[in-house]
Design brief:
Strand content: under 5%
Shape: globular
Oligomer: single chain
Number of helices: 8
Structural class: mainly alpha
Distance between the termini: 28 Å
Number of strands: 0
Radius of gyration: 18 Å
Order of helices and strands: HHHHHHHH
Length: 175
């Protein structure tokens, strides 16, 4: 998965993007169980789908996708949850990153609304909020930034691991 240029690359950039008070808050968020679990599920599904060369979806795409799913008849009338509908679509469309990113966003939204996660859900200044939807847009933008950061960190760790492996293979005489 290619990361958009606007995605935070360092923990300090992530802290600023998410409006967290300290670097320690950003580090704690990244290490928290629900975030790590949601990202592990995301990365496993996307790697198994071979989506490593695709660009991560924009927050607007994810937000529009989630809105579309919330308005579906089977969600509004039949009683299925948005997460159930999106999960099914990730299986049906394994090469489309939007449903995968939306599922990650739903899981993080659930976490941010919990007692343990609410301290990481720093909303925009009240003077900038014109509509209630602005809060939803802002949350989706911050969650996709978090996803971009995690993907970037994962790719960097993989590069380092591959370089170390190649160096060891060279020393052993295999290359």
């Amino acid at each position: 998965m290619s990361v958009p240029a606007s995605a935070p690359k360092t923990i300090e950039q992530l802290q600023t993007t998410l409006r967290l008070k300290t670097k320690a808050d950003a580090e704690a968020l990244v290490r928290s169980g629900p975030v790590a679990d949601a990202f592990l599920k995301y990365i496993n599904r996307c790697l198994s789908a071979g989506a490593s060369k695709q660009l991560l979806p924009d927050w607007k795409e994810v937000d529009e996708y989630l809105l579309e799913k919330r308005l579906l008849r089977r969600v509004r009338i039949v009683g299925k949850t948005v997460e159930e509908v999106v999960t099914k679509e990730t299986v049906q469309k394994p090469y489309d990153l939007v449903p995968h990113a939306a599922l990650f966003a739903l899981r993080i939204m659930t976490f941010l609304k919990s007692d343990k996660g609410e301290k990481y859900d720093v909303i925009m200044e009240e003077s900038k909020i014109m509509y209630q939807a602005d809060l939803s847009f802002d949350r989706c933008r911050r969650i996709t930034a978090l996803l971009g950061f995690l993907v970037h960190q994962s790719r960097e760790a993989t590069k380092k691991l591959n370089a170390k492996r190649d160096e060891q293979m060279k020393k052993a005489g295999f290359i």
